[in-house]
Amino acid sequence: MGNAENNAIDATVKRVTDAFGGAVAIEGAGELTSIVVEKGKLRDLLMSLKTEKDCAFTMLTDLFPVDCYGQEPRFEIVYLLLSLDKKVRLVVKTRVGDGEHAPTVSDIFSVADWLEREAYDMFGIHFDGHPNLSRILTVDDFEGHPLRKDFPTEGYGFDTPFVVNLGGETT
Amino acid sequence: MGMKSNILVTSVDFAVNWSRKNALWPVSFGLACCAIEGLMIPISATYDISRFGAEVMRPSPRQADLMIVAGTLTKKMAPVVRRIYEQMPDPKWVLAVGACASSGGIFKTYSVVQGVDQIIPVDVYIPGCPPRPESLLAGFIKLQEKVQKESMFDKNRRLLSLTEGKA
Q: Is B75 on the interface with A (CB under 8 A)?
């Protein structure tokens, strides 16, 4: 990673800390710089990163939660951003507790629609304002959220026979 | 049962079963790696499943007699397998190919159905992970033997109506 890229990240970090002050914290440095933001300011931060003139992070490459089981707040949602102009990446994180809701970013980055559905399906995190927050990977009548650390590997009701759900069709 | 197994019935049974067992057209349902081993290799020249009259892999269930379920059945895929099975005309048979299709295999997890027999009736289970092509042919011949023994006046024959949850 060259100097130009590092400078672009440093400039972005400086701009973000100036603008958001106490709402953000900076972790790591260089290529691994991540900005931890309060969930209330998440949408503002992502919007400003996306529309920033010098180094616009126009692409959300991934969105995933981490279950820090036993810690408080329990979940960390990670947003991986990419600036196609400057070819640099930035990590934005926000933390939500068990049962708390996170704001949706699906109107800022449309890819977040399915990524947030996956996050909801696997971790049970609700995203306020999401247009269609339903399960995406597991079956519709699935019980629980499989990637939570306290989810049993076999799932719930493993010993009872599997009942196939044909979606209300009579066959 | 009104009809007895007299000389006429058994003769018709023999002829019907003989023609059925030697023209089992499979609908291939490849779900995972067993689809390579269990479905594609037996068609190849080395193993040549057409020796047993089953080389006509149908892409449509409506033209098939035999469903070869090869691979891991996930809960998400289960309604599709069940629907394809129900679209097949009677009489129909099912081969479960591989450990996953037979019992869930190594996947003792929340996402995998522990054997396709939980959603459709299975005639022959072929073990292996994946099974050798010879195993599949052996299972197929086993199924042919089973077809030959069936009778058209067997009340339970192929009229298996699965009630939900009771496979």
A: yes
Max distance between CA atoms of chain A, in angstroms, equals: 65
CB A37 within 8 Å of CB A45: yes
Angle subtended at Cα A39 by Cα A35 and Cα A43, rounded to the nearest 5 degrees: 80
Contact of B129 with B99, CB cutoff 8 Å: yes
pLDDT tens profile A158-170: 888 888 877 665 4
The whole model's pTM is what? 0.79
State the angle between helix axes of B133-148 and B7-21 in degrees (0 to 180), rounded to the nearest 10: 160
CATH topology of domain B23-148: Rossmann fold (3.40.50)
Q: Report the alpha-carbon distance of residue B97 to residue B34 in Å, rounded.
A: 7
Please state the domain extents for chain B: 23-148
- Interchain contact, B83 vs A151, CB within 8 Å: no
* Rounded Cα–Cα distance for residues B30 and B68 (Å): 8
CA distances from A95 to A59, A102, B111 (A): 21, 9, 28
Chain A contact set for B79 (CB, 8 A): 164-167
pLDDT in tens, B17-64: 888 889 888 887 888 888 888 788 888 888 888 888 888 887 888 888
ipTM of predicted assembly, 2 dp: 0.74
Domains of chain A: 3-99 (3.30.460.80)
Residues of B with Cβ-Cβ distance to A164 under 8 angstroms: 78-79, 82, 118-119, 164
Mean of pLDDT over chain A: 87
Does A137 sit within 8 Å of B110, measured CB to CB? no
Task: Name the helix (H) or strand (E) containing A29.
Answer: none
Please judge whether B79 and A165 are an interchain contact, meaning their C-beta atoms are less than 8 angstroms apart: yes
Predicted pLDDT at B147: 87
